[in-house]
Amino acid sequence: MATVTERVVSIEEAPVVISRTRALLAALRRKPLGAASAALLVLIVFTAIFAEVLAPYDPLATRPEIRLAAPSWEHPFGTDDIGRDVLSRVIYGARISLWVGLLAVGIGTAAGMIIGLLCGYCEGRVDLIFQRVMDAVQAIPGLLLALAIVSVLRPNTTNAMLAIAIVIIPGNSRIVRGAVMSAKQNRYVEAAQAIGCRHPRIILSHILPNVTAPILVIASIWLGNAILIEATLSFLGVGTQPPTPSWGLMLSSTGRAFMEQAPWLAIFPGLAISLAVLGFNLFGDTLRDAWDPKLRRN
Amino acid sequence: MPAPYSRLNRRDFVRLSAAGVSAAAVLGPGRRATAAASPYPDWLPASSKPPKRGGVMTRASAWDPPVIDPRHTQSVGLFQFVGLTSNRLVRYPFTDEANGPADLTLKGDLAESWQGSADFRVWTFKLRQGVKWQNLAPVNGREFVAADVKYCFEQYAKEGVQAFTFQEIEGIETPDKYTVRVHLKTPNTLFPQNVAEPVAVLFAREVLEEDGDLKKRLVGTGPYTLKEHTRKVRIVLQRNPDYYDKGRPYVDEYVILSTPDAATRQAAFRTGQADFIWVASPSEAELIRKTNPQTMVQAYHNTLAPFGVALAQDRPPFNDLRVRRAISMAIDRQKMVDTVFEGHGILGWGVPYIYYQDTPPTAKDFGPWWQYKPAEAKKLLTDAGHPNGFSTTLFYYEYFPQMTSQVQLVQQDLKKNLNIDVRITKLDYTSYYGRYVESKWDGMSWGFQSGHAVGLDERTYMYMHSKSTKNFFRVNDSVIDDLTTKLRRTPDRAEQRAIAKKIVDREYDQVLRMWMPYDNGFLLFQPHMRNVAAGALRRSDGYGSPTLARTWMEK
């Protein structure tokens, strides 16, 4: 009798592995904040993609005669210092922010992943050299590094993107390296080696799929940070250049200057930045909860 | 621009949603942040009451001195106070002496009198006797003498940004302790004006000899001593009890707080922590007057514009006069004045109008190439071989927020009217200044002429002669060279006016410098401030700071 009970308990405690999509959907159902953040991100992406359709005006078209007009039915977010529609600029600003975020995080994540895979798999001298370089880069505060890079190059959106990517690389490489080292210990990797698989195949077919979850989680969180860094660089005048509608630039060039006369110039781009960053961070948290191997066993 | 909407479509929906958000975010009724032209006086006459001694005067300042060595900068950050610690040989009138903002009659500062030779190559200055350097080490209050002037002028000529002005000196004699005789390389009837500029302050030779530079100590003969300078924090000036003008200054201490943020500066003024402030627009002045109705306001009127579009006119396509004229005619300057500067601005010109006419120039005075005529501009550009426009660059530094608005409006006008694509780059101050002054750039720049000088020679020969190191706009015009040289050899005022007029007419005709509208701004003073008004191109919070030696506070 006692033996039967023990067997039942052990069957109940056996881990049930579910797919990532199902895990994510479950997490979204479980966490209303996660669901809200996902909805927010969908909205931002939708806005960025369909900016031409959604924006009521050309974001660059000036009408100085209606400058600094307060929010109204005609211009729901008001107009800026040279009479451009703020709503249209905020909508187009989503495109710049997302573009910079996705590309910078894409480049940073890809480069970090390659370095991490190499370091984690090869270890030894390759690991030592790469990781010391990463140490050196990481020793400089991210924003300062980005500022220095953009100052040395020329201030524009592309260079801001490159600078953000460079800031992202070391952290990502560390995470991937750790995950690779852990994955390398698994029996299936040993088995692959034993049957004579080549290193590239082992890395790409057996290790990489098992380290993508932490990469995606970190990337989603970095997206928020990248938007914030782009906004900061533009705010400091070394990112996107006028008249391109960028949330950070809108906040710095007109938002700050006309804060008292026209508060809407600071409120709306500020709100957009806050919502986008909040959205990505909350969604990143949700992803982590959903894809954490320990939590996925529930 | 979309047509009016008759039914709810996608865009209406977005608008409706956005309007809801705005209603929640922006409290209060909608308002247009624009205002009519200034209702404020352009001159605050001196007080007739007997001055009151004492008190601490404070100002929140946008600027910070990059260096306190007057040889190495013309920055307003330094000259917002160095005119109070140090004197010049001659000066422009203070508020309580001037008969209006445009009064530029020279007065004696450390020189009591001055006289030019018949050919205006030798200028003799008779110094004020009994003037002492401030009682600070290493000078310790010794007497100011002619040798000090000779030393300073020679040092200025040797290195630094004032060198061009002083390099025209061939030699200096000091026949006695109180006489300085300056020999110039070429005749210059306007030389006294040049040494009346704020950047010609006299410093103590002992400091330079001991320290090797003037970066740590600033000792002069002025009404105030430099008590403290903490970079990007504050500057504290203390009354100099040994100042030669007995009884002055009236205020015991002048504190300048480094406050780069405009909103913080305005808050400081509103709460009484700052005694005066400058704001750019009528609406800003109105907003402050709403909370501080007793505030005294001076509507400031510039006699020139320090900023304009500088073209690389020594190379294509801008070396073609038709291209310059086309660009000039494609820019709507009046719209900038009416909107960006809320009607309180000037159209823009480079030489102070007071030297060639009695009233500020109107659009008509600038001639045909400065009128906004897009169709004619397009035709000119086509004739110049650019029917489809071209691409170029423009770099600038944002001295004030309205400048970014102007840059973008110019970009829009050129695109719309001439199909010229202008790629804008906003730089930090150091990069901008270095690149602009080096004059190695292509395309366009939002150029400047330094704001420190109001003298006619400075504004003509120094900034326009092809050989001048301050010819930042790259003017290379033989007519201008001849006229500016002739001007400095002409002592007669009426003739000077006629030549100055010819210079500006030539400048407009050839579009040598494309001046842009500039704000006049407003100076706001707490109600207890007396004798603090700003003169032409000399705001009392900037290069006109020496006038604060006569300021007092009625409280």
Quick take:
Chain A is an all-alpha fold and 298 residues long. Helix content of chain A is 74%, strand content 0%.
Give the helix/strand layout.
The complex is a heterodimer of chains A (298) and B (555).
Chain A: H1 2-12, H2 20-30, H3 32-49, H4 51-54, H5 86-122, H6 124-139, H7 142-152, H8 157-184, H9 187-194, H10 199-235, H11 247-255, H12 264-291, H13 293-296
Chain B: H1 10-25, E1 56-61, H2 76-79, H3 82-85, E2 90-91, E3 107-108, E4 111-116, E5 122-127, H4 146-158, H5 163-166, E6 169-176, E7 179-184, H6 191-194, H7 205-211, E8 224-230, E9 234-239, E10 253-258, H8 262-270, E11 276-279, H9 282-291, E12 296-299, E13 307-311, H10 321-329, H11 333-339, E14 345-346, H12 374-383, E15 391-396, H13 401-418, E16 421-426, H14 429-438, E17 444-448, H15 456-464, H16 478-488, H17 493-510, E18 514-515, E19 518-519, E20 522-525, E21 529-530, E22 552-553
Parallel strand pairs in B: 1-10, 15-16, 15-17
Antiparallel strand pairs in B: 2-3, 4-5, 5-7, 6-7, 8-9, 9-10, 11-20, 12-20, 13-17, 13-18, 14-19, 21-22
Put simply, the count of helices of chain A is 13
Radius of gyration of chain A: 24 Å
Cα distance spanning the termini of chain A: 28 Å
Main interface: chain pair and counts: A-B, 49 and 49 residues
In the CATH hierarchy, the architecture of the largest domain in chain B is 3-Layer(aba) Sandwich
**Helix/strand structural class of chain B:** alpha+beta
**Anisotropy-based shape of chain A:** elongated
What oligomerization state is this entry in?
A: heterodimer
User: Major sheet of chain A: size, sense and barrel closure?
Assistant: none
Strand adjacency order, main sheet of chain B: 16-15-17-13-18
